[in-house]
Write a structure and sequence with these properties.
2 copies of one chain form a homodimer.
Chain A: E1 58-61, E2 67-68, E3 71-72, E4 89-94, E5 110-115, E6 134-135, E7 141-144, E8 147-152, E9 157-163, E10 167-174, E11 177-185, E12 197-206, E13 209-216, E14 223-231, E15 237-242, E16 263-266, E17 269-277, E18 281-290, H1 294-304, H2 310-325, E19 328-332, H3 335-347, E20 353-354, E21 361-363, E22 369-371, E23 378-379, E24 381-382, H4 383-386, H5 390-397, H6 399-415, E25 424-426, E26 429-430, H7 439-448, H8 456-467, H9 475-481, H10 492-512, H11 516-525, E27 533-534, E28 539-540, H12 568-571, H13 579-585, H14 589-601, H15 607-610, E29 620-621, E30 624-625, H16 644-657, H17 674-684, E31 686-687, E32 695-698, E33 703-709, E34 715-721, E35 729-735, E36 738-739, E37 744-746, H18 747-750, E38 754-761
Parallel strand pairs in A: 34-38
Antiparallel strand pairs in A: 1-4, 2-3, 4-6, 5-11, 7-8, 8-9, 9-10, 10-18, 11-17, 12-13, 12-16, 13-14, 14-18, 15-17, 19-33, 20-23, 21-22, 24-25, 25-26, 27-28, 29-30, 31-32, 32-37, 33-34, 35-36, 35-38
Helix pairs in contact in A: 3-17, 5-6, 6-7, 7-10, 8-10, 10-11
Chain lengths: ~775, ~775
């Protein structure tokens, strides 16, 4: 899910980013610029994390309230990952952040070092003219995988961050002061920042260790994050303030609850810890997270980082990143492309995240504590986005993790009271965001590609259960009518099309394990897209429960026309499992080519753009919207016509215009890595148009050369001959000496390694 | 802690109670009248529970809001146990209730069967003129240990309740209706009924099983109760309503969240389950609790009551009650006394309660999940009340349980961030209610009496830690000044006296394990009572930090004079560990006897009575207040003078006037069983004036005969010769043939069994 805002000016910020300097002997880490996408609506964050790590430790800049003067404040949406590159103030460092999502949550356990009179308000308010925020500049800020540092100019504090899988590691270099503080702000949340807490609790275990938890009611309805924090130096005193009306009176008679009292709890707490500091004295803080308990967090803390060597943790995490990023070695036409590539690759490894303690315990969807036996549990499944290219990329480059992710999805199903696979899930919650049941695609794709050792029978049962949850989002009607009637459920065409594709995925799963009955049932269901095609106008069109099509239909409009995040022009092309039949329905290849040409070249009237925040003029090519996923396969559809060269043109155009090496280098939310995964695949010259099948469609590679190191220890070398900015057309492709004629590669062939050779040309091959 | 209201009319309600009928062949169960104390401020409940059971399933009658027109509503305090005998309406049956406590919480998981149009408001409100409450009459209500039944007249439903240790078992006999409901009200709380929820959650696991939890912020600051409920008949449909502003939007797009949607959550939920019922059709409901998780509740449910045989569970629980109650067999002068006695004995077994799942898991004070290895974990420790007689009674009659309770207290210490033993704890929370650290008394008493196999070294360490928590309630100042200065901490004299006694207890513990250094330290501390004695006026008196006594001192006033729940007249007598020295300080036995006489006979001015709710004219004897614990040992102090016969007079008078067999039969809160334990001991003829020692002081037995069956398989027969209402004086006492001359019995002697023979007379032995 993406709301896109693309800027023509996306190259402007290049100079302020330390990592973007070109040097001859750069390591792969130096080609990652974590600031890419931190401007406008990229929704990425620059902070420190390990690959797929449970902690995402990142600065939070000047946030916007969700409501201003009683009205929704659209600016709050810019802060989905807590950071906006345009800002000049930091209010602290949070331990959880989504990368590139289309909606927001998290921002847990905000810490901020300050000096001088204690101030517990993050930002100036009507009642308090100051805040504990600090100003900062990008000149004194830098980031690379696993490491972030910034000078907090207001206080003369240098803040450095790194992280292991489950522990955030802070290093603050203080000035001399007898009035230094570290604030622990449990009020702060991303999105609706002070109105999401259900409960917060802090225990001061001793003079340098604290534990606690926070329970929030946000996008995730009932989310619990436990933490354990240690300081490298004992605090000299501490205290807290409560920001809520509910008072617990039992304490007041016995104690001054608010100063040096080791047990704090309430809806909204901010605590502070006071220190004397010498000039340039470093105070380090380690903060471990757990979904299980404070005991779990303490275990994670002691197990993962038993020492106080910040540099050691930083190096270990950066080594992990080197290992992951080096799985694909590329040479590109320009250094800028290489930065864009490796940052995209980096962005594909920020979620899903590990979601279990070091002993395998995690909080399940049923809020009970489970132990992952035989797998590592993951969370953050933005599946409507990521089934398309991110999970297929994992099947290619991270099959073990994808296997674990599927096992995590099956555990989710088993813990679900609905007996459903995840839709959009994170932190033991189902957020129900977007449509379809695309976990079926992830599983079918793994099965088609022989990835993993998960229980395929159980997976099929889980998929069938999911596909038969009649109360889910028009699904009962879909089964009754063979389409979702628009008068029963909005976005009915999008749902019908995606359910049909998901049903095809289930049929493929059944086929793999020789369940012919289920295969037949779901193959039949997969044809339901036919019921919403209106041949009279050549578009998919919302149909009512009486069998008639919706009147007053505008195929250019995205809203109220039976679609979601896409109009009929784009969404009508979404039948990935039956492209040839779709083309036939539309009158054959020539007419279809013309339709595609029109899509990319037409001029969209302003009225279709201005009325919502999802589409702006800069984010589209004609009427093609790259930032909204339903079209991601569309540039590749020319391969099914007589003009595959147009796929090559379009793909290359998108690679060059919708991505870039700057803070504005994402044409909208990264969508939990899906946008970046599209870039990785397309840069390498192929794309999984139909997850659940073996096939990749060939586009136009951006790289000059690439080496893919697979988990099976085989290596695929991609060689792009005559590559240049103008040589965007393919004259020949061969895999291990065999010429590919149909612009299709199979996964089983690729995964055997060898050489994939593209020969490029500046002229299209039009015959 | 007790606020007492004693009524002269306490015999009036006799006729309405089914159990109070006298029949020749009554079982011990028939001598228990669970309605005793349910009127006015007894704070007992009539519902069903197993001895020391985790579930207290009891009717909740018309409650009072905590605030009326913005002001505190004193009537709400009547509802500490959810039930008031004067009421004519029931709003449902809750699964947790305190028995006799001086403050309120709980009332979890209210269920109510109804018929007709669904109504989710318990009581009429401004917006809704009706409620789901039912009228009832005491004629169609009865209760006995482990069983309660009532006719819900509004609906023609008969409701029956029983319970195992962890499972409440409901049996509702419905009329014929296609509109029958069972309401599950998670909004309702005892005390501040709709403002305590932090979060509530319900999962409909299948058509007859639901799970969920409730988190509250009440007296316990952060309390979590998980539940699992099964219905004997599948519901035909269900739904819920939310009573809060916080909306989770994710669900609305996909579902009608409010009807037949299996996942409900919010701050305040009421759910309903619909049934068709035939005439006289029984629908049964089992509800298991857990402090751990819904998985724990399901395990408790399946393990404890795997069947649907209501009668079987009722009989099993009543057999448990028979076994516990039969440990003391008594013959009394009147049948009424026998009812009073067995009901008092019953009331001593309603708390502390078992607090762990069947697998030993429980939520600890640190909110982490622990497993009780080698003991059964208990909660609800109202220690300021119960160290006096309840725990000593357990040491006599329930030593195994008291051993488990002490181990539970040690676990509490280990989980406490303060490293303190419990003060007033329940459900993984420390409520900090009242003063002192009387867990030390419970432990010292067990050690003095050789009860249990707990780790005595660990116990001593825990006690020392507790006694050195400087920030606790004036304790640091107590250590510095050797008394609590009134200008530093209110109720300073009460605190000084009780700390001194607790310190003596710690010294006794140290002595038992030959830690002479600790014994010396705490023996010194135990003398601190001397610092607050003002010989010039003959009273304990608040002292300021400058060493001077408070001026403007009124020894009759309970408020603002350095005491809590007692005035200087009563509290000055609180030096249980140095009674002889206290008597010396006061000028010797004769002067002391006169003081005691004055206490019992003086006329207290109205101004000392009317200004607070803790003392009313009817609850006192002269200036002696039986309902407030600090005086509980006072009637026995004559034993240390030359007039022990006055103890006999006073004790017998209190037994006869402050207790009775009716709904108003408690002269104030039962104080978690302490008032009842006083009655049991005193009825048997002796009382533990000094817990932590071997000694009992002899009073005047009320029974004619008693047989105590100890856990060591020994039996003590108490024979009271010439017993009658007028023969209240003791002419001779002998234990196993040995005449007792000093009115003192030792525990070690009693526990060996044999015969304790009292010879009574109507004339006092005055020489």
């Amino acid at each position: 899910m993406t709301r896109i805002i693309f800027l023509l000016s996306h190259l402007l910020c290049f100079s302020v980013i330390a990592q973007a300097q070109t040097t001859p002997s750069k390591t792969v880490l130096e080609y990652v610029n974590p600031f890419i996408g931190t401007s406008k609506m990229g929704h990425t964050f620059p902070g420190a994390m390990a690959p797929f790590g449970m902690v995402q430790l990142s600065p939070q800049t000047n946030f916007q309230p969700l409501f201003k003067n009683g009205k929704y404040n659209p600016e709050t949406y810019e802060y989905c990952a807590g950071y906006q590159h345009k800002d000049t103030t930091i209010i602290g460092f949070s331990h959880t952040n989504f990368s590139g999502t289309g909606h927001a949550d998290l921002g847990d356990i905000l810490m901020m070092p300050t000096v001088g009179d204690l101030n517990l308000n993050p930002l100036p308010t009507a009642n308090n003219p100051t805040g504990f925020y600090s100003t900062f500049t990008h000149e004194k800020e830098s980031a690379s995988p696993g490491y972030y540092q910034v000078d907090l100019d207001t206080y003369g504090i240098k803040a450095e961050l790194t992280a292991s899988d489950r522990v955030g590691f802070h290093q603050y270099t203080f000035p001399e002061s007898n009035n230094s503080h570290i604030i622990l702000d449990l009020v702060y949340n991303i999105y609706n920042y002070d109105a999401k807490n259900v409960w917060t609790s802090i225990r001061v275990e001793n003079d340098s260790t604290i534990t606690g938890y926070r329970q929030t009611n946000g996008w995730a309805r009932d989310r619990k994050v436990f933490f354990a924090i240690t300081f490298s130096k004992p605090f000299k005193s501490y205290g807290h303030k409560k920001y809520d009306q509910v008072a617990y009176n039992g304490f007041y008679r016995k104690f001054n609850e608010f100063e040096n009292f080791p047990e704090m709890a309430g809806h909204n707490l901010r605590a502070y810890f006071n220190f004397d500091t010498k000039a340039s004295e470093k105070i380090q803080v380690k903060c471990a997270l757990s979904s299980v308990s404070t005991a779990g967090a303490l275990l994670n803390l002691k197990t993962e980082i038993p020492h106080w060597d910040f540099q050691k943790t930083k190096i270990e995490t950066q080594e992990k990143w080197k290992k992951e990023l080096s799985k694909i070695e590329v040479e590109t036409i320009s250094e800028a492309d290489k930065t864009t590539f490796y940052t995209a690759l980096y962005h594909t490894m920020l979620s899903p995240i590990i979601y279990e303690d070091v002993n395998g315990q995690y909080r399940g969807l049923d809020q009970n504590i489970h132990t992952s036996n035989g797998f590592t549990n993951y969370t953050i499944f933005s599946l409507w986005d990521t089934y398309r290219a991110l999970h297929p990329l994992f099947n290619l480059m991270q099959p073990s993790r994808n296997n674990d992710m599927i096992k995590s999805m099956l555990a989710h199903h088993d813990q679900s009271v609905h007996h459903m696979l995840p839709i959009w899930s994170h932190y033991a919650n189902e957020n129900w965001c977007m449509i379809g049941y695309h976990a079926t695609s992830v599983i079918a794709d793994a099965m088609a590609k022989h990835v993993g050792d998960f229980d395929t029978n159980h997976a099929l049962t889980a998929a069938i259960n999911t596909a038969n949850t009649n109360y889910f989002d028009g699904l009962g009607d879909y089964k009754t009518y063979h389409y979702v009637p628009e008068d029963k459920s909005s976005a009915s065409v999008s749902k019908t099309l995606e359910y049909a594709y998901n049903d095809w995925c289930i049929a493929q799963m059944a086929k793999q394990i020789n369940d012919t009955k289920t295969e037949g049932t779901f193959t039949n269901r997969s044809k339901n897209y036919e019921h919403v095609y209106d041949a009279s106008i050549g578009f998919m069109r919302p149909k009512l429960s009486d069998g008639t099509f919706k009147t007053d239909f505008d195929p250019l409009d995205t809203h109220g026309q039976g679609f979601i995040e896409g109009n009929a022009w784009n969404y009508s092309l979404y039948v990935p499992h039956a492209i040839e039949h779709m083309i036939d329905l539309r009158g054959g290849k020539e007419k279809f080519t013309q339709h595609l040409d029109s899509l990319f070249t037409m001029t969209l009237d302003d009225k279709y753009i201005e009325k919502n925040e999802d589409i702006t003029r800069d984010g589209i090519i004609g009427n093609y919207v790259h930032g909204n996923e339903p079209s991601h396969h569309v540039p590749y559809l020319y391969n099914w016509t007589n003009a595959p060269y147009k796929t090559q043109e379009r793909v290359r155009h998108i690679l060059n215009t919708m991505y870039g090496p700057t803070v504005e280098g994402l044409c909208g939310n990264d969508d939990a890595g899906q946008m970046s995964a599209w870039y990785i695949f397309s840069s390498l010259g192929f794309y999984p148009v139909l997850p659940g099948s073996q096939n990749y469609a060939i586009g136009s590679p951006l790289v000059k050369e690439a080496t893919l190191h697979f988990e099976n220890n085989k290596t695929l070398k991609i060689i792009v001959k005559q590559q240049s900015k103008k040589h965007i057309y393919i004259s020949k492709v061969s895999l291990n000496g065999k010429v590919i004629k149909d612009f299709t590669l199979s996964h089983d062939d690729l995964i055997q390694g060898g050489e994939l050779i593209f020969e490029m040309s500046k002229r299209p091959k039009t015959h």
